[in-house]
Design brief:
Layout (H helix, E strand, L loop, with lengths): L4 H5 L5 H26 L4 H16 L7 H10 L12 H20 L3 H23 L5 H5 L2 H18 L6 H14 L10
């Protein structure tokens, strides 16, 4: 599914950079989950928000202690089921949860690269699925690659990657800035805007 050179480049980053990259992509998927919750009265988007905030905190607070096992349990209870909703928004909401789950698993296992690649792929898949749904048909990777929405998602992922890759060591101001900018923008990878 839509491979990109970014997946090879991610290998060069350190784990804190992978984590910041993953948190950034989850931040961009959060509005999809939030909107779904608002539309359906399903769950509480604050659960997602709190878990993601805890991850950001561990990136900037040196000895932040977080029980990620218990956060994973909370997340698992907050994932909607496709069977329960006849609404397109359930799919981007589930993808947002899959991405956050990958981020939690990376904190539990200490493995960050493979999870970073999976979240990158999940985010692009959300965009691709919407494009195919709107077009009413399946598309090949070659067809998808040239779509403006796909190109834009890759551009943003590259932008986040480059900001992180330019840091020699963990840069707290950069991490805080990324978090702030993405939260303030409140625009998701598929254009959901809750600002």
């Amino acid at each position: 599914m839509l491979r990109n050179p970014i997946h090879l480049r991610l290998e060069r980053l350190e784990s804190w950079q992978h984590l910041a990259f993953m948190a950034s992509l989850c931040e961009r998927m959060y509005p999809n989950y939030q909107m779904f919750c608002q539309q359906t009265a399903f769950g509480d988007p604050a659960i997602y928000r709190r878990i993601l905030d805890l991850v950001w905190e561990t990136l900037v607070v040196k000895d932040a202690k977080v029980n990620f096992d218990s956060q994973l349990e909370k997340l698992e209870q907050a994932i909607p089921s496709v069977e329960d909703y006849d609404l397109y928004g359930v799919y981007p909401a589930i993808d947002a949860c899959i991405a956050l789950g990958e981020l939690i698993h990376s904190r539990l296992s200490g493995e960050t690269l493979e999870h970073a690649i999976t979240i990158s792929e999940t985010s692009i898949r959300t965009v691709a699925m919407l494009e195919m749904t709107q077009a009413g048909r399946e598309m090949t990777d070659d067809e998808l690659k040239v779509l403006p929405a796909i190109a834009k998602e890759w551009d943003i992922q590259w932008e986040i990657f480059r900001l992180l890759a330019d840091c020699e060591e963990r840069n707290l101001d950069l991490i805080k800035g990324l978090r702030y900018d993405l939260r303030e923008a409140a625009i998701s990878n598929i254009g959901v805007n809750l600002a």
